[in-house]
Design a protein that fits this description.
Layout (H helix, E strand, L loop, with lengths): L3 E4 L2 E4 L5 E7 L6 H13 L4 E6 L2 H4 L19 H8 L6 H11 L2 E6 L2 H9 L5 E3 L7 H8 L5 E4 L5 H13 L5 E6 L14 H9 L3 E5 L5 H8 L4 E5 L17 H18 L11 H7 L2 E4 L14 E4 L10 H4 L20
Parallel strand pairs: 3-4, 3-10, 4-5, 6-7, 7-8, 8-9, 9-10
Antiparallel strand pairs: 1-2, 11-12
Helix pairs in contact: 1-4, 6-7, 9-10
């Protein structure tokens, strides 16, 4: 297994900057101008990729599929099939959106939900396939997509380890070694108490691949924390406004929040740094002035032997360190020391 590989021109994986995917999902509301505005927002936030979804209701849901309870207050009276039909991304938009993304300097991705979508996206030259949690059990489709030779970013919501192993095996059987597993909880929204970020450690240890997080919480704390815990990829839903109607708007980040999330992720990456614990060169002045050392309490004449009442331990720190107090006591002073002088080894 590889611990890093290229997505487009960018290295992704262990030790590399986190790959941030802004998930527009269905938040285009079937308006091309709105889809482009979402791309603008993702690019302005300085994310790495913007992602849509390519599906057709006819090949995704039976018309007899019951309604999702979490959508009761959003799409009252609308069947699951009709909802999906109403929010499909028109496939004729894909080339235009991909081109627009390229001109905005951000990678274009879309999650495929059928073979035609895989072929269409591959023909557009997308740099990777992002795989939805719901589709992880469609092993034939997963194998078909991974056979295209693009990196596979596979979400694992609702999965146990056996489900994930089958998916990983399907990808590997196609000859594709470029896999990142995304921990995910398929609840919209997800409360922080159900996120279980430690599951990322389990995925990393069990499958020996890079890991990330596809997050459905309502804020930015969880994805930022995930990066500190080693997430190589973050995927997060975003919208132009949570006041818009539709299934994915209510739990998505608005533009200022998305920008703050990306900025915070980059700050966390900078802060991770080195595991070596030492004084930094930048800290030397603080140590010199802010640490304590042995200081003369009053004037001490040359030839005097130092007693405890003659000294005090206080700042600054460029005198003899406090741990050597017993060594200093009883020593003869070699030259006059003024009150509040830091006592140094050359003085005794």
């Amino acid at each position: 297994m590889k611990n890093k590989f290229r997505i487009g021109e960018q290295m992704v994986g262990e030790g590399e900057p986190c790959f941030v995917i802004c998930d527009a999902g269905a938040n285009h509301d079937r308006k091309l101008s709105q889809a482009k505005e979402l791309i603008d927002v993702a690019a302005e936030a300085r994310a790495d990729a913007v992602k849509f979804q390519t599906y057709s209701a006819e090949t995704l849901y039976s018309k007899k599929t019951p309604r999702f309870s979490y959508l009761d207050n959003i799409t009252a009276g609308q069947s699951t099939y009709d909802l999906i039909k109403s929010i499909e991304l028109p496939r004729e938009w894909q080339a235009e959106l991909a081109d627009y993304s390229g001109r905005k300097g951000i990678m274009f991705l879309s999650t495929p939900f059928d073979k035609e979508a895989v072929d269409e996206l591959y023909a557009l030259g997308i740099p990777a396939f992002k795989w939805a949690s719901f589709e992880i059990v469609d092993l034939p489709l997963l194998k078909y997509a991974s056979g295209k030779g693009k990196p596979m970013l596979v979400s694992t919501g609702m999965c146990n380890l056996a489900d994930i192993q089958e998916a990983v095996d399907a990808v590997l059987s196609s000859g594709n070694m470029d896999i990142i597993l995304l921990h995910c909880i398929s609840l919209y929204p997800t409360v922080p108490g159900l996120v279980n970020l430690r599951m990322m450690d389990t995925l990393r240890e069990a499958f020996q691949v890079p890991v990330g997080l596809s997050d459905h919480t309502t804020g930015i704390a969880v994805p930022v924390a995930a990066v500190a815990r080693g997430a190589c990829v973050i995927e997060k839903h975003f919208t132009l406004s949570r006041k818009l109607k539709g299934p994915d708007h209510s739990f998505a980040l608005e533009p200022p929040e998305l920008k703050q999330m990306v900025s915070s992720i980059r700050e966390v990456e900078q802060s991770l740094g080195s595991p070596l614990k030492r004084m930094l060169p930048e800290e030397e002045e603080m140590a010199k002035l802010g640490r304590r050392s042995i200081i003369a309490r009053a004037d001490i004449r040359s030839g005097t032997r130092i007693t405890e009442d003659m000294v005090i331990i206080k700042r600054p720190g460029y005198g003899i360190a406090p741990k050597f107090l017993n060594v200093v006591l009883g020593r003869e002073v070699r030259k006059d020391i003024e009150a509040d002088d830091a006592i140094t080894w050359d003085m005794i």
